[in-house]
């Protein structure tokens, strides 16, 4: 079957392999964050939401891939996504404070167990054949649209602060590249449900890079002003990719910004300058 797939869809296979490699890097992006957590034995205010969402996205796309034929490359990357996100969440549960652990447990029960089980039962019992794939495909598209809306909060902060310090250009670039690759995969596979969410991923990625270009010099000029006001801004960003499956897979982009507003943006961690991972999650995957 695998050989048949390669011969029948040579370009789809090529783009799928490239997409797997790019999504793999996106999934591994938070490694530095969790190494820091391990060294300090503390989650330092990082949130678990992007990792929970990324895990849910990978699960959803794996289910979709099993219903489709010749979708092995979606299964491979999202299986890895489930594996790595589970490791991240286990580490988070070990080092997070009690309140954060309880919140994470509730999210896992409601989203990854409750909602996923509900989607599985409804599509399995109320639909069959092409209709089941169609319904699940739209569920993936809807969820991916919500995931890709996450960068809007980042873009809002960039415009307000005129600073791109917490929106790395190369991260936005590779997430955009990931969206292009997975869109191409969906195009050659003639899979509308993979194509559509990656169009959103591409649009948001281009907008982020445009903002970076527009504000990269402005940010430098505003440094002295910020120091005079003595109102440091520390934004913790966790990016997850959804890469893949492409509901992750759709790319896996997964991002979380911890911002508190009280007539000014106040940040809790002065070392938040270190890049961390999603879009999460992107939530992560050709989603």
Automatic annotation (TrEMBL):
<keyword id="KW-0677">Repeat</keyword>
<keyword id="KW-0762">Sugar transport</keyword>
<feature type="transmembrane region" description="Helical">
    <location>
        <begin position="133"/>
        <end position="154"/>
    </location>
</feature>
<protein>
    <recommendedName>
        <fullName>Bidirectional sugar transporter SWEET</fullName>
    </recommendedName>
</protein>
<feature type="transmembrane region" description="Helical">
    <location>
        <begin position="12"/>
        <end position="37"/>
    </location>
</feature>
<keyword id="KW-0812">Transmembrane</keyword>
<comment type="similarity">
    <text>Belongs to the SWEET sugar transporter family.</text>
</comment>
<comment type="function">
    <text>Mediates both low-affinity uptake and efflux of sugar across the membrane.</text>
</comment>
<keyword id="KW-1133">Transmembrane helix</keyword>
<dbReference type="GO" id="GO:0005886">
    <property type="term" value="C:plasma membrane"/>
</dbReference>
<feature type="transmembrane region" description="Helical">
    <location>
        <begin position="166"/>
        <end position="188"/>
    </location>
</feature>
<keyword id="KW-0472">Membrane</keyword>
<dbReference type="InterPro" id="IPR004316">
    <property type="entry name" value="SWEET_rpt"/>
</dbReference>
<keyword id="KW-1003">Cell membrane</keyword>
<dbReference type="GO" id="GO:0051119">
    <property type="term" value="F:sugar transmembrane transporter activity"/>
</dbReference>
<feature type="transmembrane region" description="Helical">
    <location>
        <begin position="194"/>
        <end position="215"/>
    </location>
</feature>
<keyword id="KW-0813">Transport</keyword>
<feature type="transmembrane region" description="Helical">
    <location>
        <begin position="49"/>
        <end position="66"/>
    </location>
</feature>
<feature type="transmembrane region" description="Helical">
    <location>
        <begin position="107"/>
        <end position="127"/>
    </location>
</feature>
<feature type="transmembrane region" description="Helical">
    <location>
        <begin position="72"/>
        <end position="95"/>
    </location>
</feature>
<dbReference type="InterPro" id="IPR047664">
    <property type="entry name" value="SWEET"/>
</dbReference>
<dbReference type="Pfam" id="PF03083">
    <property type="entry name" value="MtN3_slv"/>
</dbReference>
């Amino acid at each position: 079957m695998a050989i048949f797939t390669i011969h029948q869809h040579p370009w789809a296979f090529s783009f799928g392999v490239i997409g797997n490699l790019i999504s793999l890097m996106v999934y591994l992006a938070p490694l530095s964050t969790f190494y820091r957590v391990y060294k300090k034995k503390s989650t330092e205010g990082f949130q678990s939401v992007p990792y929970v969402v990324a895990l849910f996205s990978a699960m959803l796309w794996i289910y979709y891939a099993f219903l489709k034929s010749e979708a092995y490359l979606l299964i491979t990357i999202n299986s890895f996504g489930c594996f790595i996100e589970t490791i991240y969440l286990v580490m988070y549960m070990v080092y997070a404070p009690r309140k954060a652990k309880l919140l994470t447990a509730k999210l896992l029960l409601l989203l990854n167990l409750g909602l996923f089980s509900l989607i599985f039962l409804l599509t399995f019992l109320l639909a069959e054949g092409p209709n089941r794939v169609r319904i699940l495909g739209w569920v993936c598209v809807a969820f991916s649209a919500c995931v890709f809306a996450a960068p809007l909060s980042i873009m809002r902060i960039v415009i307000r602060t005129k600073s791109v310090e917490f929106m790395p250009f190369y991260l936005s670039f590779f997430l955009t590249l990931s969206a292009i690759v997975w869109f191409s995969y969906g195009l050659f596979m003639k899979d509308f449900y993979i194509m559509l969410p990656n169009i959103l991923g591409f649009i948001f990625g281009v907008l982020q890079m445009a903002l970076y270009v527009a504000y990269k010099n402005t940010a430098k000029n505003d440094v002295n002003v910020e120091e005079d006001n003595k109102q440091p801004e520390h934004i913790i960003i966790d990016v997850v990719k959804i890469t893949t499956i492409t509901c992750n897979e759709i790319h896996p982009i997964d991002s979380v910004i911890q911002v508190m507003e009280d007539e000014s943006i106040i940040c809790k961690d002065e070392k938040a300058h270190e890049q961390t991972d999603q879009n999460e999650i992107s939530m992560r995957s050709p989603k």
